[in-house]
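LAB NOTEBOOK - FOLDING QUEUE
OPERATOR: T.R.
BATCH SIZE: 2
PURPOSE: Compare the predicted structure-token outputs for two unrelated chains run back to back under identical settings.
PRIORITY: normal
REVIEWER: second-year student, initials M.K.

ITEM 1
FIELD SEQUENCE / FIELD STRUCTURE:
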Amino acid sequence: TLSPAQFKFAQSTLHTLRKQRDTVPLNPPVNYIALDIPHYPKIIRHPIDLSTVDKKFSASNP
């Protein structure tokens, strides 16, 4: 469990990371249908993207 200060720091770090130009491809979930990579879910069994991390993290606010 994070302290409120740790939570705030981690959330700030995540938001800063999401704003970086190099992380743009990591922000939304992979749309494997639109990208025509039907084997994606067989290879990547537990996909995660920064927007999902942000939502889950925000939902766990202490």
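ITEM 2
FIELD SEQUENCE / FIELD STRUCTURE:
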Amino acid sequence: MPGVLAQAHALSRIRLALAAARAAQGAWRGIDRDSLANSWAVALGPVVAAVAGAQLAAAQGTEPWLLRLLGRDPDQAESDRLDPLSLAGITGDGTPLVQALQVPMWTTLRLVGEGMPIVHAMARGQALLNLMVRTAVADAGRAADQVAMVARPAVTSYIRVVEAGACSRCIILAGREYGHSTGFLRHPRCHCGMEPVTDEHRPEAQDPQKVYDGMSDKQRRAAFGEAAAKAISEGADIGMVVNARRGMATAAAFGRTVQATTESTTKRGLAHKASRGRGPRLMPEEIFRQADNREHAVRLLRRYGYLF
């Protein structure tokens, strides 16, 4: 099972994501239905600030967590510390929040234009907003964890930590071990996390079947569906029943071919100082994909402002 610190770390991220989602939904419910686009344009600034603040808080929790969990890494350069600001204000694929969070309104307007009642269209838009906000906060936290792990030479890999209420696809990936720079498989609104592995710290991996056995009948039906839950309970191999990769991808795979963002390269971008205005900035997962080795990855993380 993941350690107490890893579980507490994951829970704090979930709370931050839920708080940001509540703030966004409160703003959405205050929209003037007679002026949808203009009303959301006014509300968008505070919403972006709330989500970026949650992302920043999620990223700021990484270094203290790793320090408590692993102690100091004598081989890590003092300059190679995570810059939490570098991961706030953008989505996991590098899209600025101010741009991404307009999508729920565009979706609502399109549905209204197609004849859907405004109440139903706004409900659809709110559901999309909730999904996007929670995913953005979770992605920022996971990216922070992985950047900081890559910067620690002692970390050789990570083990997937499944959060309470996880879906079937996440449950069967519980406890799997991946290389320190391997992209994290997730789906929208996924809140699973990772725990680092070193020579001195090897957490006990979760077992998917044991996770399933510890669930109530109601939880099993919610996660797997009634037919699949019945099959697993009657002895079917959980790994054969569920297709783990259906709907799963890394944060980078959800976006462009080469993941980059210009958000932090503007004077108002949160990480402008770190990136020094060098043009489009590669996202961490794209850096890990392109890097030849850990040293190369660390150099790129420094170059693009994720470490300082």
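REVIEWER COMMENT (ITEM 2): Residues 118-150 form the longest helix (33 residues).
FOLLOW-UP: none requested
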